Amino acid sequence: xxEYELMYISRADMEAEQQEALQTxxxxxxxxxxxxxxxxxxxxxxxxAYPIKHQSEGYYVILYFKAxxxxxxxxxxxxxxxxxxxxFKIIRPGAD
Length: 96
Known about the structure:
Number of helices: 2
CATH superfamily: Ribosomal protein S6/Translation elongation factor EF1B
Number of domains: 1
Radius of gyration: 13 Å
CATH architecture: 2-Layer Sandwich
Shape: globular
Oligomer: single chain
Low-confidence stretches: none
Number of strands: 4
């Protein structure tokens, strides 16, 4: 398993319970594919540099986890079709 960082920006107008449910859904998706969540870093609501999907604020979360390639493929697919997520990026830290 490799280490990854996932940063996503979700809609800031969601309730706190909805934000937690979204994060839990992503955590469960990582675990379903044999990955393990190392740390979750919630930055909270921040102003966006430019509007994304007519939103001027976003809710920032960074997840640090270990997973195989199959989990990354599924995360990309699910996050691309989730309306609550404005932007996301998955990287391997230290990979050149």
